[in-house]
Design goal:
By secondary structure, the chain is of the alpha/beta class. It has five helices and four strands; from the N terminus they run ααβαβαβαβ. The protein has a two-stranded parallel ribbon. Strands 3-4 form a two-stranded parallel ribbon. It is globular.
Length: 150
């Protein structure tokens, strides 16, 4: 079973290695938060702007077609609102690999495109859960935050 927190990693694995990979019927938490806000405010004349760390989450959110809800990367939001950004890479990811640490089944954590390629190319292991994060060392280097990432 593949972890769904990173739509870009999942899209990559499906396209390149396994179109039949099993995934839970779930969304990344950012999408659940947006759905909750939509439920609370959709009857009002309110526009919601949800910022995301990457274009992949933005695209997933916008694909839901929620009325008056726009998903945009932080870079797009900053540009649209003339916010000057001082960019820096975080020392630690707010969403690091290891979410499934302590779970009592066989878990393989992959936290970069290179690790994903190495694992799926070799396919020597057969874990119960594959944690997938496209950006190296976790979700913090997305193309919606830093220029030239991931």
């Amino acid at each position: 079973m593949a972890d769904l927190r990173c739509p870009l990693a999942l899209e990559y694995v499906i396209e390149k290695y396994n179109p039949d990979i099993e995934t839970p019927e779930a969304f990344p938490i950012l999408i659940y938060c947006a759905l909750e806000l939509f439920e609370r405010f959709h009857s009002e004349d309110v526009s919601l702007h949800i910022t995301t760390p990457c274009a992949s989450l933005k695209n997933l959110g916008n694909s839901l077609g929620l009325r008056n809800v726009t998903f945009m990367t932080w870079n797009e939001f900053a540009a649209e609102n003339a916010i000057s950004l001082k960019r820096k890479t975080l020392k630690e990811s707010p969403i690091p690999p290891g979410f499934f640490n302590g779970v009592s089944c066989n878990v393989k954590s992959l936290a970069s495109k290179e690790e994903i390629d190495a694992f799926f190319s070799a396919q020597k292991e057969n874990p119960d859960i594959v944690e997938l994060l496209y950006c190296r060392q976790g979700c913090h280097n997305g193309d919606g935050i830093l220029e030239g990432a991931p």
